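Quick look at the format.
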Amino acid sequence: MATKPNLAAVLYGPNDLRLEKRPILEPAFNEVLLEVDTCGICGTDVHFLKEGGFGAQMLIKPIVLGHESSGIVRKLGSQVTDLKVGDRVAIEPAAGCRTCDLCKVGKYNVCLNGKHCPTQKHDGNCSNYFTHYADCCFKLPDNVSMEEGAMLEPLAVAIYAARKIEVGLGSKVLIFGAGPIGLMCLIAAKAMGATRTVVLDLARVKHRLDMAKKLGATEVIAIGKDDKEDDLVKKIHMILGAPADRVLECTGSQPGMRISIKSTRNAGKICLVGLGNDDVTLPMVDAISREIDIMTAMRYNHDFPAAVETVANGLVNLKPLVSHHFDLKDVLEAFRVASQSEGNKIMVHLVPRDTNNKKKFVN
């Protein structure tokens, strides 16, 4: 049962984030009430903070931000049988309506009527308490920390994207963007068998490129303001030994998309993961004439089980990604740091850190 107020990080408009009390909701028959333990800050949260949303998801009412979270089950809905009070879980914040055509063919991640957190119609979970569908809560093994549980959401994004373009043994992979999702894509690509990887980002985020190198990238490229597209393409080909087989574009920027196309081999595959500019100019004749597959990925599609397994079994190590820790009372500063790209993964702790871990974890 809830024993404290439900404080939440509520966005009222661009750069108007407030910490305020919200009601604690009762779980529906197929839901659980969760006490949120840890919440990571994502790029989409920053888009909401800076611009009031992204694409069609512009703010129409105050919403709670946050969706990379783990928590403890505190109350069960009347028909929940697969979880029990006290279970530690990772929270998949995207769920379909279960009845539309998209859901029925397994595309719940882009269901138009689903509960996707946060969107303009649904609150996120950077709050002390949060009700959610029980089947979207995944039990954490004892050897997985609550922080790692919160990072399963961006890892699932990366796994979904890498699966879509069929990263496999021996793949030569280009990753554009060394933010948290780009770094997660690097981790996922290497776990899936990529043998050569190159990560690009702006020179001003050197700390992120340094992290990519630490995580095992074959090489990183710091982009300067005077660098030309074709010169960067040549550098990529030189590092990989050939054009890229697979590309994960994680910035949503026009330069990122253009260089991705130019760097890919004939019949290669590109996945556009990042959300950025609404309109871009791309060398599409080049892409078409070389039959490059350009795909998009939104959220994930039943990739949380794989994310749990890869972390629990030591196939991937997410701990080095965490750069900052904040208590909920300091959530405004946490979002400021995230919005300035001053770190890698920013964690907000809604209970004292390590309270709900089964053992002591060291980053």
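Next, a different chain entirely:
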Amino acid sequence: MARIELPEVLVMEILSKLPVKSLARFNCNAIPSVYGACHGLLCLQELSTDKAALWNPSTREFKILPPSSIQRPPYLSPMEGNLALYGVSFDHAALGFDSKTNDYKVIRFVSFIYYHRPFVTRTFVNIEEEQRYAYPHYEFQVELYSSRSDSWKEIPCPLYTPTDLILGNNYVDGICYWKTMTEAYLGLILLFDLANQKFSILPFPEIAGSCLHYYDNLLMFNGSLSDIVCLLEGTGMSFDLWVTRE
């Protein structure tokens, strides 16, 4: 699954500056992903669990966030009874500031991964039959943390969910951004307004012309949402940087 994370070397450099007591309280079994920064704050998130924390490197304040409020979905899908819950992940987080309520907020997507149970009743299932049921089924939910209430709450999940990495921060001026895509569009930008707590989408710019083979990703450049594009065709290597004006 796509993940939002900083390079491991940079994460280790950041975590090495934390006091031992804070690291022991966080008690990670793996290196957490780092999200932010917003007003000097960073959000640490362990992807395989709901463990998360806010950290201020300048003051060394370290706050453990409360457990997730999301429970296992009461529904599965029309194929209920043939799906088995395989795992849960907490990913695509964003840290931002709601100036309307003077509140720091964290939003994250919770993914429930299901696998199809074999329809056969035999104890032994051969490899070909296993492969028939190896495709995962996903259910997504979204939760929002408020520092003022120090609690999570579930919010309506958008039709489109993040599908790709973000280069660094994905928050600017009260809005969180992610890349997403649909069957009708190769790429869309998913937005979340922290003040209104509403999702919306924007189309990507016409960046590649007739070239169908390119790599692009969102990033923040000089305080603005930007898209960096690398064409994968042709003899030369070049990058285009698109910067929003509003």
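Residues 207-246 form one domain.

See the schema section for token definitions.
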